[in-house]
C-alpha cells in the first residue's frame, strides 16, 4: 500500500505562488496567505482524536499552554510581523502613486484571468523588449509599471497585475490586497480575455466577481475596455463577429491601433482632460512648452500665416492654467 499526499485547492494555489514568487513583496504576501491555511489545519487537528492521543492538548513547559496553543500564538506573532512589513511596502507604493499623480501620467491597469496574455499585450503596446511573457499560470505576482505613448503622444503608464483565478479563497485575496489595490487607483482598466480558451466565459465571470471583492469604484468598472485576446488562435472566426469586445492578438499585433484609440478616448473622459485648439508661434516657446506638458493630437501650419501653427491638444486643467499664466498674450484659443 502506497501513501499519497492529498492537496486541496488552497494548498495547490499556494505552492504555485511560491514557485513564481521572486520579489520580497510577493514572498511576504504568500507567507501571509499561508497563515489562515495553517491556522485552519490546527483547528481541525485540535478537534480530532489524534491530538489527544499524541498529547497535543496537554500543557507544556512553564507557560501552562498546550502545544497547539503555542503554535497558535506563534502564528499570531508571525501574522502581525508580516502585516507590518507589508504595510511599510504599501506606504512606499502610496508615495509612488503621489509622485505619479504629480506628474499627471494616466495609469492603465491591465487585468485578466491568469495566463490570458496581459504581459504580451503590454509589450506590444509599449514595445518594451525587456518584457518576457511566459506561458504559465501566475507568471506575474507583482504589479509592474511600463511607460508607453499613445497616438497623440500622450505618455501613459501600463500596470501589469496579478492574474485572477476562479474560486480563489478569500484569505488569498486579502493577502494580496496591496497588490490588487493598484487596480482601484488606475484611471482606466483594460480587461484582457483569452477568447481562445474553452472556459473563457467562466474566466470573464471570475474577473467581474473579483473586481467586486476588491471594491473597484463603480465609475471605473463602468468604463472598462473589454479586449478579446489571442483571436489568431480561434478556429471559428465567425464566433467573434458578434462580440462587443475589441478583437486583438498581442503576439500578431492585430487590433492594437483600435485598442490604443479606445484607451485614449477613455482616458480623456475619466481624467477630465481638456481638448483644446490653439494658435501658437511656429517653433516658439509656447510650442515647446505644450510639447512637454500636453498631448498634441494634430499640428498644422496656419493657412493664413505660415509663422503660426494650429494645434489640437489634450491637456489637464492644471497644466492649461499654467500655460495661460505663462503665455497669456502670445497665443490664441480657437476652441
From TrEMBL:
Keyword Ligase on entry:
no
Q: What are the UniProt keywords, alphabetically?
A: GTP-binding, Magnesium, Metal-binding, Nucleotide-binding
Looking at the UniProt record for this protein, which Gene Ontology cellular component terms does it annotate, in alphabetical order? cytoplasm
| Cofactor(s) demanded | Mg(2+)
Identify the species of origin: Oppiella nova
One molecular function GO term is: ribosome binding
Q: Which SUPFAM superfamilies match?
A: P-loop containing nucleoside triphosphate hydrolases (SSF52540)
Please list the residue ranges annotated as the Hflx-type G domain.
106-271
Which segments does the entry list as coiled coil?
none
Name by which UniProt lists this protein: Hflx-type G domain-containing protein
Q: Does the keyword Metal-binding apply?
A: yes
Residue sites binding GTP per the record: 112-119, 138-142, 160-163, 229-232, 249-251
Residues bound to Mg(2+) are 119, 140
